[in-house]
Amino acid sequence: MPRGRYSLHDLHDHTPLGEEHFQCAPGPSGWRYLSRTTTPSGDHLGSVDLTLDELGRPIRLELHAASWQVRGAALEGVTWVRTDPTGTHATEGNVRAHAFTGTSPAFLIATARLLRLTPDSPATRVRLVAFTDPVLAPRTVDQSWALVNSEAHATDSGPLTVDEYQVSALDTGEQHTVHIAGDVVLAAPGIELEDLESPPSPL
Predict the structure, then answer these.
(1) CB contact set of 116 (below 8 Å; sequence gap of 6+)
(2) Closest to 2 (Cα-Cα) out of 28, 35, 30, 29
(3) Which residues span the domain enclosing 191?
(4) Count of domains for the chain
(5) CA 11, 178, 145 angle in degrees (round to 5)?
(6) In the 8-state DSSP scheme, what is residue 43?
(7) What H or E segment, with its residue span, contains residue 190?
(8) Which is it for strands 160-169 and 175-181: parallel, antiparallel or unpaired?
(9) 54 in a domain, yes or no?
């Protein structure tokens, strides 16, 4: 069960946004990721609880940030309920999309598991519902994912395969690179792996 810590940075000026302390593991249904995020000063910021089925679809999502809450799942596309900090107002949403995304590295792993690309696969388009910080506002985004390189590296616990993905935002044409080993993000825009207590589980 991989357990570790990511540091999160602003994409534009690299200002530290905080840390995400995580653990994840394959399970009976597919894969589960749990984390809590903290501010640069160490205060509690939010949490992520994401469970995927064996095909990589989100069967349970629970997000908390700034007292806002989102619960979601794959249902007729993706469906979610977003609750305000007072708990008195809840709004439901549904979009014909494949999965969810957001600032957590969990969503990069989830998309990679969903698409199951190989180096021979063509670039694949995916529609995602993004929940943006700090109030978890939903926004539909279209991305293109391509696995451009897959390379095995020798480690003390055996070979570790690192996959390099090129991710393109189809609305702006902006491209970035994501490096993933098993179910751990090694590097991505705004995300750095700072600490890992055990090897990644296979994707």
Answers:
(1) 56
(2) 35
(3) 3-198
(4) 1
(5) 110
(6) -
(7) none
(8) antiparallel
(9) yes
Secondary structure of residue 48 in the 3-state scheme: strand
Per the CB < 8 A criterion, the answer to whether 166 and 173 are in contact is: no
Residue 146 CA, distance from chain mean position: 16
Name the band, by pLDDT with cuts 50, 70 and 90, for residue 86. Answer: confident
Q: Is the pTM of this model over 0.90?
A: yes
Mean pLDDT of 163-186: 96
| Alpha-carbon span 197 to 195, nearest angstrom | 7
Is-contact 200 153, C-beta < 8 A? no
Alpha-carbon distance of 184 to 156, in angstroms, equals 17
Closest C-alpha among 108, 183, 99, 113 to residue 142: 99
- Token duo for residue 11: 């994409």
In a domain, 203, yes or no: no
C-beta separation of 189 from 11 below 8 A: yes
| Location of structure tokens 């991505």 | 188
Are the C-beta atoms of residues 126 and 141 closer than 8 Å to each other? no
Q: Can you point out the beta strands (E) in the chain?
A: 3-9, 16-26, 30-38, 44-53, 58-65, 68-74, 78-83, 90-95, 99-101, 124-132, 137-153, 160-169, 175-181, 184-188, 191-196
Q: Is residue 112 part of a domain?
A: yes
Which residue has better confidence, 130 or 153? 130
Residue 41 within any structural domain of the chain: yes
